[in-house]
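Hi U.,

Before I forget, here's the chain from the pilot set. I'm dumping it here mostly so it's searchable later in email.
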Amino acid sequence: MAMAATRVAGALMTLAIGAFLFLDANTFVLMAADPATGRPKGCFTAVELMLGVSESSGIRGIEWLVSIGLLLAVPVMAISALVRWFRRR
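Structure:
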């Protein structure tokens, strides 16, 4: 039973991270220019802000691709968990 709970927790964590990255890649924050850090005015994602990127980069595309991969992994994880559960019964 503990193994099944671990698989469910892993699938939920994958779903949460994938959803966050997908939403973040598709929504942008309009930031004012910050002379102290040298960041120009523009639209940035939360990941770009966490990484301290000073100008828009290719992170959005990578973030979008990773999110799609994670979101597609969740059904695969669920199906494999169900198959293992049925085989053990």
